[in-house]
């Protein structure tokens, strides 16, 4: 037996807008469609409605009633993302979900009785889940899409229509519940038909002969018969959030403030689906026209808003869009979050998500060159190094003991080498090289008479290139303490200290 | 059957059996099943204290018990002179400070050895290198597995302390903070920062080694070791010997919360062979 649940968001344009700007909820806010004199109200907040603002009023009329009325145009981007969020909530209950647009979603809940105590509990869970993504939805459950939709539109939520009682459920309801914008409504009113039940009691053939095919369908609907099957939608490949701004933004901070809210919503949607963000794409609509887009690859899939926002800030600071921003959308490429495998016998592995978040924060603080895995570089110069993305191999399965240290004298490399003045004397016959170092002079701490000095050792690298090096090295111990590696390459430099 | 069982139970109650005498049961207990245990499991159970082993019932509890045991282990640097002073190595969940003046040798060598030991065990380790003195070639020659090492190069002391705090909270088992040579880059940080670092290390079981040219951690550290009286060893005599062979330095236990201070050891280090320009 097919059971269908319908999630319905009343006044969807308003709900979608309030999801993006929740601070407007207590205000007298109206959502307007059309421009100039044709602008009319399509939805309004409770505060506006209590003051007499109704859908259908022109904006001028509404402003006459409430001068301080806040008017917002319908935002297709907000509504699209709100609908996506609603669909994602629905998909947490069943993989068979149909998108009916404008805040209406049908869910095939057949067989779900094993997971919930009753269909009422299922409906309550669905409403709670929708509220979790910022949408005040109602839920109705019935055997057909029609029954579920009508049940969802009732103020009491959730409403469950028991199997086989669709006709009884619909009978007392006014005809408008069936089809709100029905052309035949006036004809039926002239017949004295006010409720769905009264229509259902009429002979089907008589209604069909007078109202045509529409009448037959209407009569079917009135009897609770809805042959339309549920058509499941395909899974979206990406998650997108965004909005059009009321005024152009020039500064970074206000933009990040709005982007942060969008990222929050994005993270909530990703969490509902059990995904994390692997790649973030930002598209900004610029004033007067044009757009600017960029992509940020994350070190590992994450849902941490702070991390994503930090990376966004870093990226925008480095390459600003160059024009005021009037709208934006953020798209997250989903990926399964990585989980660390706990180990009984070996060292614990780091949590990839936690590691990615920490490294992203460190990069935002120190720059990309300041954090990473050190790598050696071919060549003989000590101050050469490379940094790669830190991605440690998994720890061994079995705990193993440490390898014994070689006990080597470490060197502290100076980057860049410290230029010094050196006083030398000619080498004696039993000493290598042409000169030996007697003293070092500099403005810094590396200065003084030399107690002992060994060298030189010659090193030549890349002589065939313009940036090649030809150095003579000495190891030097100063009388005041400290041991250094000094070299001459035209000028004298201290390359490292023994430490 | 239930009625019979109930009546039998009532009859046995009336018999007033003595407690030491086993009470007849309708269904006898099944014989214990001898499960073949892996050698590792047997060793693990043997490693646990008797009371803990009896209490461990499932994998989660076993991991918690192992974590407790692991916390009590030290992370050796494999430099006997240093490990002896600390009673086996760097204690996990504690902060140890190693200080030494510019002229002393050994601070960086101990740091590299600790990193080499930890990475050879498969642990992920971090070097926060404030002076930007780290040379990957030397470290690799000393046995550091560079793939497991995260190298952080902050510009100021404040950034360095913040990095250590972030990293310790991520779950790294060894974090080495080297403050470089004097003067230390950036201003001093408040003493409370070091207390916070010590607490973070304790909360996450991280062994934290602070290598600094002068004492900075105050009372927050578990132990303070001073490297002093360095002597370089030259091959050859006079002012122009032939080769720098190595160095010895004296390590003195300045402070320890659980050991008597004042103990000294001698650390011997040798020059890397096959380094550039050698």
Summarize the structure.
The complex is a heterodimer of chains A (499) and B (278). With 499 residues, chain A is of the alpha+beta class.
Q: How is the secondary structure organized here?
A:
The complex is a heterodimer of chains A (499) and B (278).
Chain A: E1 4-8, H1 12-20, E2 29-33, E3 40-44, H2 46-50, H3 59-65, E4 70-73, H4 76-91, E5 97-101, E6 104-108, H5 119-132, E7 138-142, H6 145-153, E8 159-160, H7 166-170, H8 185-190, H9 196-201, H10 204-222, E9 239-249, H11 252-273, E10 276-286, E11 291-302, H12 305-318, E12 325-335, H13 352-366, E13 371-375, E14 386-388, E15 411-426, E16 435-441, E17 448-461, E18 469-478, E19 483-489, E20 491-498
Helix pairs in contact in A: 1-4, 11-12, 12-13
Chain B: H1 2-14, H2 39-47, H3 50-55, H4 59-72, E1 74-75, H5 80-86, E2 90-91, E3 95-100, H6 107-120, E4 125-129, H7 136-141, E5 149-152, H8 157-170, E6 174-178, H9 191-204, E7 207-212, E8 223-235, E9 243-256, E10 264-270
Parallel strand pairs in B: 3-7, 3-8, 4-5, 4-6, 6-7
Antiparallel strand pairs in B: 1-2, 8-9, 9-10
Helix pairs in contact in B: 8-9
């Amino acid at each position: 037996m097919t059971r269908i649940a319908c999630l319905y968001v009343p006044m969807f344009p308003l709900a979608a807008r309030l999801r993006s700007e929740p601070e407007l909820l207590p205000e007298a806010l109206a959502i307007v469609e059309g421009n100039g004199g044709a602008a009319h109200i399509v939805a309004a907040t409770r505060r506006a409605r209590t003051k007499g603002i109704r859908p259908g009023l022109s904006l001028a009329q509404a402003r006459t009633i409430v001068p301080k009325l806040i008017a917002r145009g319908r935002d297709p981007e907000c509504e699209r993302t709100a609908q996506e969020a609603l669909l994602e909530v629905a998909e947490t209950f069943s993989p068979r979900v149909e998108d009916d647009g404008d805040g209406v979603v049908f869910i095939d809940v057949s067989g779900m009785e094993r997971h919930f105590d009753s269909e009422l509990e299922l409906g309550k869970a669905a409403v709670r889940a929708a509220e979790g993504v910022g949408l005040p939805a109602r839920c109705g459950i019935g055997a057909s899409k029609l029954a579920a939709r009508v049940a969802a539109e009732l103020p009491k939520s959730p409403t469950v229509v028991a199997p086989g009682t669709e006709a009884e459920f619909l009978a007392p309801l006014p005809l408008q519940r069936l089809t709100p914008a029905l052309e035949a409504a006036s004809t039926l009113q002239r017949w004295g038909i006010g409720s769905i039940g009264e229509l259902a009691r009429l002979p089907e053939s008589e209604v069909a002969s007078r109202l045509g095919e529409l009448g037959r369908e209407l009569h079917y609907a009135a009897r609770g018969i809805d042959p339309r099957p549920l058509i499941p939608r395909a899974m979206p490949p990406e998650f997108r959030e965004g909005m059009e701004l009321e005024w152009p933004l020039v500064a970074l901070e206000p933009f990040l403030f709005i982007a942060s809210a969008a990222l929050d919503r994005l993270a909530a949607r990703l969490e509902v689906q059990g995904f994390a963000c692997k790649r973030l794409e930002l598209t900004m609509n610029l004033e007067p026209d044009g757009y600017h887009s960029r992509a940020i690859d994350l070190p590992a899939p994450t849902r941490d808003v702070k991390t994503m926002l930090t990376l966004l800030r870093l990226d925008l600071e480095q390459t600003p869009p160059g024009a005021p921003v009037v709208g934006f959308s953020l798209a997250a490429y989903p990926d399964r979050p990585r989980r660390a495998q706990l180990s009984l016998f070996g060292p614990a592995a780091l949590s990839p998500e936690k590691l990615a978040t920490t490294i992203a924060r460190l990069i935002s603080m120190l720059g990309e060159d300041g954090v990473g895995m050190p790598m050696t570089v071919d060549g003989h110069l000590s101050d050469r190094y490379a940094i790669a993305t830190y991605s440690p191999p998994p720890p061994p399965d079995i705990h193993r003991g440490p390898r014994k240290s070689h006990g080597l004298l470490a060197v502290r490399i100076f980057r860049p080498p410290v230029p010094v003045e050196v006083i030398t004397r000619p080498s004696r016959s039993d000493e290598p090289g042409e000169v030996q170092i007697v003293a070092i002079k500099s403005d810094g701490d590396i200065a003084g008479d030399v107690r002992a000095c060994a060298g030189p050792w010659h090193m030549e690298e890349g002589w065939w290139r313009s940036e090649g090096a030809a150095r003579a090295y000495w190891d030097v111990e100063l009388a005041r303490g400290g041991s250094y590696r000094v070299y001459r390459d035209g000028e004298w430099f201290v390359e490292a200290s023994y430490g | 059957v239930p009625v019979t069982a109930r009546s039998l139970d009532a009859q046995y109650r009336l018999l007033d059996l003595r407690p030491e005498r086993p009470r007849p049961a309708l269904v006898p207990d099944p014989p214990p099943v001898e499960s073949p245990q892996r050698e590792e499991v047997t060793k693990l159970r043997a490693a646990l204290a008797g009371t803990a082993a009896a209490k461990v019932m499932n994998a989660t509890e076993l991991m918690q018990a192992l974590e407790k045991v692991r916390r009590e282990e030290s992370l050796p640097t494999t430099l006997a002179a240093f490990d002896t002073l600390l009673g086996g190595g760097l204690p996990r969940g504690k902060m140890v400070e190693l200080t030494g003046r510019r002229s002393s040798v050994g601070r960086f060598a101990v740091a590299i050895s600790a990193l080499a030991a930890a990475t050879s065990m498969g642990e992920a380790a971090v070097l926060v290198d404030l002076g930007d003195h780290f040379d990957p070639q030397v470290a690799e020659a000393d046995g550091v597995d560079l793939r497991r090492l995260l190298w952080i190069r902050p510009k100021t002391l404040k950034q360095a302390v913040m990095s250590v705090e972030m990293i310790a909270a991520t779950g790294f088992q060894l974090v080495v903070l080297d403050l470089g040579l004097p003067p230390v880059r950036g201003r001093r940080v408040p003493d409370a920062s070091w207390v916070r670092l010590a607490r973070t290390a304790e909360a996450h079981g991280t062994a934290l080694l602070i290598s600094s040219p002068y004492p900075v951690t105050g009372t927050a550290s578990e132990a303070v070791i001073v490297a002093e009286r360095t002597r370089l060893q030259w091959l050859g005599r006079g002012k122009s010997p032939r080769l720098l062979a190595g160095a010895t330095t004296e390590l003195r236990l300045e402070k320890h919360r659980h050991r008597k201070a004042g103990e000294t050891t001698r650390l011997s280090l040798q020059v890397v062979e096959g380094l550039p320009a050698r």
